[in-house]
Amino acid sequence: MLTPSLVIAKKRDGGELTREEVEWFISRFASGEIPDYQMSALAMAIYIRGMSTEEIAALTDAMLASGVTLAWPTLKGKIVDKHSTGGIGDKTSLILAPLLATCGLYVPMISGRGLGATGGTLDKLESIPGFRTNLSLTEIQEITARVGCVITGASADIAPADRKLYALRDVTATVPSIPLITASIMSKKLAAGLDRLVLDVKYGSGAFMKSLDDARALARSLVDTGKRMNVTTTALLTDMNQPLGSFAGNAVEVWECIEAMRGRCATDLWQVTAELGAELVVGAGIAADLESALELFAEKVSSGAVLMKFFEMVAEQGGDIDAFGELMEAKFGIGGESDSEHWPTLQGGHVIEARSAGFVQSIHTEKLGLAIIEKGGGRKVQTDRLDHWTGIEMLCRIGDEVREGQPIVRVFSSDDQLIRVAPMIQHAITFSHEPVESPPLIVERVE
């Protein structure tokens, strides 16, 4: 006969839990029969002892089974998604979802909010007036079928066991556990009823995983779990030792993505977005290889199809893109008609200058994210209200040569008080007298 204490003790002592034991424990935790303190004890045992690939798959499956899995019986195309482990300026989802939809794929993207110093996709999209991120399961299915893509938060019906467990992990020092991270990510993603999944696993100063080795271990765990759950899964390991793209924040990142979908995209942002997308269109048989996928993407962007698809998704989710443009104009002094040829460079902001001449050696990206939070662009506690108009523009990259007094970062804020964040930003960027090589952006593919 199973009891919570027997399961906890088995894992505490280094034993391997059976699928039956994992499913029994998680189902009773989800129903409230097993209390939080016993789930916390098991989480700590998992954190210390780890889990085998089989155990992680069983844990993922049990969390998935605690809620609803979407079904798509009437859709003809492949159901795909992408997940990123997060970073500063990580905005690829906003471009990738409509891009893939224009290629004939269906993208029901379940996204999240900011975590730690990193921004959240939902927080960014909510800078568009009226945009709804709390869609019901029926709305997710209907909008996906009509538009081809949707970006929303997980409803209460999706992996409720994960929601309960994550709240405990956050206060019991068990967040950085690869088995628990894997089950949390994959249970929510697989609830969308996917055929294929691509993962952007980031490493570096602005990432959850600071080292490449840790990122590689997480990517392997995620990919192996996807395969065991019969969903074709691949991962790219990408650098987060500097922000992705030119902007970091909420509204400014949405604006940057709209510019990207007009064909004016920062090189690094486009490379990561396109290579993640290529994993899915090549895997689905829509493109033969990376080169042909990139050609297809360029055609979709240049035709205006991707931008129009994004606007369509925004409208279906209640967003008013013209109102967003008007707010951007009011905040930054730009024109913002949604059908205009382009939106000019953002105006205003407060420039932070280099303290010395040299080559940009490193950027402590997490500190930049914390500076944005300090100005209200992220949450210190869960109940904080966001200032969607706070953000930064990077005016330098690792390897750039700069002179003393040259602008290196521009800060956008609703107030003029930079006394707290200016030193944080200046100290986040270091310089060398010798030339510095720019780090590779995509370092490895895991399959």
From TrEMBL:
* Enzyme Commission (EC) number: 2.4.2.4
Q: Note whether Transcription occurs among the keywords.
A: no
Question: Its GO biological process terms?
Answer: pyrimidine nucleobase metabolic process; pyrimidine nucleoside metabolic process
Q: Which residues form the Pyrimidine nucleoside phosphorylase C-terminal domain?
A: 359-432
- Name any GO cellular component annotation: cytosol
Which UniProt keyword terms apply here?
Glycosyltransferase, Transferase
Q: What is this protein called?
A: thymidine phosphorylase
What is the originating organism of this protein? Pirellula staleyi (strain ATCC 27377 / DSM 6068 / ICPB 4128)
